[in-house]
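Bug #77: duplicate submission created two jobs. Keeping one. Sequence:
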Amino acid sequence: MHFRNKKIQFNLFFALFVAIYAFSSCQENKQDPEDIISETRKEYAPDKRVALFDITYDDGILMGETNLPQALEDLKNRLDERSINYLDQVEVLPKMEGEKNFGLVTISVANIRSAPKHSAELATQATLGTPVNVLKKENGWYLIQTPDQYISWVDAAGVEIITKEELELWNTAPKVVFTSLVGYVYTDDSKNQMVSDLTAGNVLELIQDKGNVYEVKLPDGRKGIVEKSKSEPLNTWLASRETSHENLISTAKNMMGVPYLWGGTSIKGVDCSGFTKTIFFLNGQIIPRDASQQIHEGEEVDRDKRWDNLQVGDLLFFGKPATDTTPERVIHVGMWIGNNEFIHSRGRVRISSFDPESEHYDEYELNRYLRTNRVLGKESQNILAVEKFIQ
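Kept job's structure:
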């Protein structure tokens, strides 16, 4: 009888254990769908500037949009594994009519904004001839992704929407690149009428060589002429691109005095990271857009203000260091040019020095210095050759 009671007690204990385990498993399977979405977003799209994963779960409906189909598929698998029912109403981008999922910038500098309206924050810029991915249209605006992966909105007047086949035709067509800081496409040799203004790095289709000028066509079909002295064949220009110390300094100093413009990446105005990005672009490399992205590239070479460790072309980062309660904030970036000096855009493109005896001494930046990275000669999946996108 005593043995039987122990057996009953054991069975009851085992049944209770199984019930608790089953309840725990059930609770695990009933994980909040928003938590699963958040985990997936963190894995596939941690930086919303370069990846779109705007998805929510509401009353059994999975809704929103993304340009990451693999991430969406993985999310649905995770929901299935936890026996979470859902109706998939997520839009996968691009979503354009006639498979016109590509575009070419048609004006000297296109302003690309954080929202589809002119009053929205200027996020970045793209120059004439830049190829972009077109994700969707909203009223008179297109959501695009630039070669450096930035996702923002551009006014329809600033981009020509094309198919993949049309993009391939553009890529294989002969082209010229504008090499002067500023200039124009004129209707003819008389130069009485302007077709478009131009800035350094603008790319146009070459129709024919006409002595002292090139006859060219813009991506939207407008035609005109550019002076040979201010442009050259694209292949020649690409072959001459070299991110040497001399070229970087020369390009940077040619932009001295250019006004600061939040979101700017052109001779018309630059913010701090737009300036460093433009310097490298005009010498053959595409680096990430923002200082908070650029700081993750290359190799750290200093954080102790040992300026002898620095080389021309190194990127200096400034901001607020991490504390026990707050993360590091990268606020500013400049490029080292030697002799205890760096060049950067703050108010305007200027030269600053860490030498207290220099007329350019910059105590303000010295006090918020974080560290320096070297990107020259360092491989990175986020630092790309210009020719990969401008052919």
